[in-house]
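Protein data:
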Amino acid sequence: MSQVLSGLNDLVRQRVSAVARKRIARIAVFALVPLLTQACASTSSVVQTGDAGRFTLHASAAGGSAAWARSHKAVMQSANDFCAQRGEVPSVVSESSKGVRALEAHEADLTFECHPRF
């Protein structure tokens, strides 16, 4: 396998000029940076509220066109995981989000309860 890849690499180097290689590298960097920044979302630990059986979570995601969706997905996944450990499913009591601009942090707050599976 390594010989095949080495052979392909040599062939590409022979066929592609130095200018074209620089252009391809530049395009690859510009394509990868947004993908890497969009992968970041962090979630707080589950906190019990003052109401019996209710819990809260907070998540934030780095800026980007769909950061609000990543922060929402992060709190929903964390609530699902938390309730699943108890053999239950989450039920959303309330959710709020902040941050709508492309280059600002997006945040989601979730209050939920765990209920038995039916």
Observations:
- The longest strand covers residues 88-98.
- The chain has two domains: 2-38, 41-116.
- The two ends are 51 Å apart (CA to CA).
- The chain is about 45% helix and 30% strand.
